[in-house]
Amino acid sequence: MDKRVTFKGLWLPLLLVAPQAVVTAVFFFYPAGQAIWQSLFIPDPFGLSMQFVGLGNFEYLLGNSYYRASFVTTAIFSVSVTLLSMGIALYLAVLADRLIKGSGTYRTLLIWPYAVAPAVAGVLWMFMFNTRIGVVSWYLGQLGYDWNHVLNGGEAMGLVVVASAWGRISYNFLFFLAGLQAIPKSVIEAAAIDGARFWTRFRTIVWPLLSPTTFFLLVVNVVYAFFETFGVIHTITAGGPQQSTTILVYKVYADGFVGQDLGSSAAQSVILLLVVGLLTVIQFKYIERKVHY
Amino acid sequence: MKHFSTSLMALVAATTFANSAAAQTEIQWWHAFTGRLAELLDAQVAEFNASQSDFKVVATNKGNYSEALNAGIAAFRAGEQPHILQVFEVGTATMMAAKGAIKPVHEVMSEAGKPFDPAGFIPTVTGYYTTPEGQMLSFPYNASTPVMYVNRDMLQNAGIDPNTDLSTWEAVGPVLDQLKASGVSCPFTTAWQSWAHLESFSAYHDLPFATKANGFEGFDTELTFNGPVQVQHITMLGEWARDGKFIYNGRRNEAGANFRAGECALFTESSAGYAGVKAEAQFNWDIRPLPHWAAVEGAPWNTIIGGASLWVMAGHEPAEYAGVAAFLEYLSSPEVQAKWHQDTGYLPATPAAAELTASQGFYAANPGTDIAGKQMTAKPPTPNTKGLRLGSFDQIRTIIDEELEGVWAGQKDAQAALDSAVSRGNELLRRFEAANR
User: Fold this and answer.
1) What structural domains does chain A harbor?
2) What ipTM did this prediction achieve?
3) Which residues of B touch A45 (CB under 8 A)?
4) Looking at residues A19-40, what average pLDDT do you find?
């Protein structure tokens, strides 16, 4: 039943693919190749000299306990951000889906935070929880809780997770709501007539039918947590205290642009590339099997 | 058609004027100052530009110190580097190692035929930026050193004589006890913990921060700040943190806001914090020398400087370097130095500027402003007190900050934290050595 459009000749298909191929080559293959090449050297920051070290940068990194700890930090951070933002978004989407009046207003309000850039969101949360002038930390102080994410690694991690998940809820909400509205009402009504209560309907009908959306969001959110949360972490904790919020991508920046250690930074980019590639393969190979299209 | 010819004439006229303006050689200066300091810097530039017609200095802010350094490095790689780049003191080894990217200041001055005598500068200020042979590599533009600010009203209210001796840590301890007992929530706080309590601390007690004369004699240097005196000091601060006598507010100068708001009684901070305290503090305060341990025989020596220096970048025309030389000569004149010192709290780089400031009656009218200068010149420098020249030092400071935070949070004891900071820092030094072989 496959429908295939075939082009005659070789030039037309090549021409049609060319723009995408050029974009991929210029913005992905070239920089990725450069990163792999540079990861074999220890260059000086000004580009005046380079020492070939083979896999020395990778040896150095993997032998460094703080770099290994950064993997754990990244895992905790990405899982928390993904679960938190998707969980809350799904809950809100289910509620908004059941609304009859005023759903447009709710939707609009819920989408607002998505317009806030990560760095700005970071500054916002940083001010609320600032140990000296923060509104929230002041109220916590009144309740007898001494909030100090500058010294307490757990609090710092909690804060960057919440701040990163916050803006993302809107995005996930949009997709979940669209997914919910695409589920035929007749199926749900039939189940209701058979006596299925809300929770049973959700578990046996809505959740499986929503799985393509959920899977898509899972992939996108993991990538978000890996790469786009840089602004939030940079503005709130700068990776501290004691590297407890230094995720892999932040370490690439800190070692490369603050420490001027471009060899280590390039090697980290290569490792990060492999990790994300691997994660995506795993997701498509194992989780996608459970998805019903 | 008439319109066209008019606009063409205007265009020609504009181009001609632009050409005559371009006869002035432009000198690009990238810096990291904002706010009040940027205003003062711009005033210097304006004065220099108005004083002669051959050169025009154009000052541009490129973000904070780290960002300005990165901008300079990226620009050099692209062949678009400025003539002058302001680099903070921890970037000194990075710049020094980049032999093909910089032009030493002594060379710039001698090629331009400017009389320039390194002996005319305060050795502990310029030492940080000078080769072991005494040749100046970068120009000490804004140098400061840690001192202690005291809220006199808080001492008074706690029943302590505000003039009490605070020159030693032995004397500071009981005062903090009294402050704490009288209900003060923040008896002591600090800015720049690594700089004040490990880097300057080591120099102040003539202890090596790193081998090879703190890195001055080679890149194969190793950190040594985990000695018994440093451990004792950090242990004491850790105990103070546990007992609520030392309140930690952050890695940079976050604590300044707490002191200026009247929350903290004693505050170790850069001498350049003077302008802010003077502008904001609504209480009686004064400046004291950084305390030392009386138990260490011979102490105190001098503290070391922080701040930034001006590096001349390589790859420009001789005529442009002549302009750079003229500008640096202007900056080192006693009048400019003295005004800068009085406005900002940065150290005067020359004894002449300090003498001029004294003769203008500034020290008499603003007691305590001479303390930083005196602290720097009390004794001739030793190999341990000249400064630090360590690669990747920005990152090493971050490591030190992380480990110290572990001590303040009570998760680590001082010995373990400093040992760990030393071994982690040494790894970075080895990488820096490899990169600059």
Assistant:
1) 57-290 (1.10.3720.10)
2) 0.74
3) 73, 94, 98, 435
4) 93
